[in-house]
């Protein structure tokens, strides 16, 4: 029972045809692109731009977004190659199982569960905050005890329950709602960009790259792991500030990888998955850069509000009504993010349950809706409880470290699978392999090292819990260990 036993690509694909576990194939390249844009563009476009410009990069934050997009694009190409080669639910978990082995697959699946559960919960709380702001601006005030930051965050719980019900009804139905909300979000973002152009003062772009200045460094468990290990003192602005800004805004792009979790429900996965992953990343990069140019042109970077840059940029010019529009856009935007993260979480658990690394009964597909309804209910319940009752705050970086660890393993897995199975048909191939996948893994590792020491400690505790479950249950019950077939009526071939 080797820890590095692999599940063949052929077996992974064959599992998708088992009647009891077959998902409905209904998604196109357009659906996947909308899905990707829906999860990537959230509150970050309204807040993160101002924070990066004010704190570390100045107007050169536009370059930070481009650098981050290039780094993220390398990982996106690795995901696109894997998704077109192994079109099965599970994303990085399934890819790792086929290339690196079961233990690595378990680790990455465990990390992705952390990323998507916490990510959906954190964003649901953010949605509640923006909803409260929007309602206040139209004259409605929610009781403090049951709103954002109260004893129970009722709006966040209601949102998760509604989206959970929608998710259970079907992936296509979910994406129809997602399409409408993404359209509203993009309309507001474009409106903000076009309206902001009227208030740009070219003098605000000078200096475009402010002179580098030393900055007060964090200490103890709050300092980045790289600083803790190397003793280097951080600096802001200048070229170093651009790179620091890239590390900060990189997390605004996280989410495109969720597209790969829908591989099994895509009509033509070899063609449509690479298009959906890469197209969503390109669209988001263009919008992020446009917002960065507008906001740093409207207000001097030193006067930007790091927490609500766009809304305050318009208030700076006396256009306070725009704050209502931006809050409405954030409410629509964050709804799509919660929905897509919850769908991603169900597909990861579905793939792990079908392989018996988690109890197989979870992977039951509803006979009418063709969705994993048991897992959908479980995910909805957990996310609703965490979003409604837990003050997450400090756990937000856990989302990032889970995602980046997945990026590293997928980048390495592309190289391994190329060497082990060069015969496989690949709808998309990463150019200049293995150079670009190695570069992707190194960049993602560097970004992980920029996360705080306390985040790494929490991550190690989560991994330890995962190892305990794997060795106590998953290793012995896995289908690769027992040889069990998904469909017991299918005869075993000797």
TrEMBL record:
Compartment(s) of residence: Membrane
Sequence intervals crossing the membrane: 29-48, 60-82, 145-167, 179-200, 235-256, 277-301, 321-350, 371-392, 398-418, 430-449, 455-473
**Membrane topology value:** Multi-pass membrane protein
Lineage: superkingdom: Bacteria
Tagged with keyword Cytoplasm: no
Looking up InterPro entries in the UniProt record yields: AA/rel_permease1
Alphabetized, the UniProt keywords read: Membrane, Transmembrane, Transmembrane helix, Transport
Its main subcellular localisation, reduced to a broad class, is membrane
UniProt KW Transmembrane helix keyword? yes
Q: Which Gene3D superfamilies does this UniProt record tie to the protein? A: Amino acid/polyamine transporter I
Q: What is this protein identified as?
A: APA family basic amino acid/polyamine antiporter
The species this protein belongs to is Microbacterium trichothecenolyticum (Aureobacterium trichothecenolyticum)
State the taxonomy lineage. Bacteria, Bacillati, Actinomycetota, Actinomycetes, Micrococcales
């Amino acid at each position: 029972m080797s820890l590095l036993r692999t599940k063949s690509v052929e077996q992974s694909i064959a599992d998708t045809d088992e009647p009891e576990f077959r998902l409905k194939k209904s998604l196109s390249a357009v659906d996947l692109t909308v899905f990707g844009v829906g999860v990537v563009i959230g509150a970050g476009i309204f807040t993160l731009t101002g924070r990066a410009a004010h704190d570390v990069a100045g107007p050169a934050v536009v370059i930070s977004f481009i650098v981050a997009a290039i780094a993220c694009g390398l990982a996106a190409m690795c995901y696109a190659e894997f998704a077109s080669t192994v079109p099965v639910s599970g994303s990085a978990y399934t890819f790792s199982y086929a290339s690196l082995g079961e233990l690595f697959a378990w680790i990455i699946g465990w990390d992705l569960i952390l990323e998507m559960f916490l990510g959906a919960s954190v964003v649901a709380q953010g949605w509640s905050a923006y909803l409260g702001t929007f309602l206040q601006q139209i004259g409605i005030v929610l009781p403090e005890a049951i709103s954002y930051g109260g004893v129970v965050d009722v709006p966040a719980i209601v949102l998760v329950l509604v989206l959970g019900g929608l998710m259970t009804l079907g992936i296509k139905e979910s994406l129809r709602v997602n399409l409408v909300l993404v359209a509203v979000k993009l309309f507001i973002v474009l409106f903000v960009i076009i309206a902001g152009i009227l208030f740009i003062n070219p003098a605000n772009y000078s200096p475009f790259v402010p002179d580098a200045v030393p900055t007060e460094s964090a200490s103890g468990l709050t300092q980045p792991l790289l600083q803790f290990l190397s003793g280097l003192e951080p600096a802001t602005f200048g070229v170093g500030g651009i790179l620091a800004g890239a590390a900060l805004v990189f997390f605004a792009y996280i989410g495109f990888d969720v597209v790969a979790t829908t591989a099994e429900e895509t009509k033509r996965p070899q063609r449509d998955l690479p298009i959906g992953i890469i197209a969503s990343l390109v669209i988001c990069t263009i919008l992020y850069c446009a917002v960065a140019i507008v906001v740093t042109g409207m207000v001097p970077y030193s006067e930007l509000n790091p927490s609500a840059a766009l809304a305050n940029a318009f208030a700076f010019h006396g256009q306070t009504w725009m704050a209502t529009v931006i809050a409405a856009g954030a409410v629509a935007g964050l709804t799509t993010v919660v929905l897509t993260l919850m769908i991603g979480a169900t597909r990861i658990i579905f793939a792990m349950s079908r392989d018996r690394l988690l109890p197989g009964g979870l992977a039951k597909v509803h006979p009418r809706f063709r969705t994993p309804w048991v897992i959908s209910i479980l995910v909805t319940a957990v996310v609703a409880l965490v979003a409604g009752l837990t003050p997450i705050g400090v756990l937000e970086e856990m989302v990032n470290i889970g995602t980046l660890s997945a990026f590293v393993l997928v980048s390495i897995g592309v190289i391994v699978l190329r060497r082990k199975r060069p015969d496989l048909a690949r709808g998309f191939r990463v150019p200049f392999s293995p150079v670009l996948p190695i570069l992707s893994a190194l960049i993602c590792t560097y970004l992980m090292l920029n996360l705080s020491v306390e985040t790494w400690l929490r991550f190690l505790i989560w991994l330890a819990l995962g190892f305990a479950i794997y060795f106590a249950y998953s290793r012995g019950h896995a289908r690769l260990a027992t040889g069990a077939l998904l469909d017991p009526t299918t005869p075993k071939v000797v």
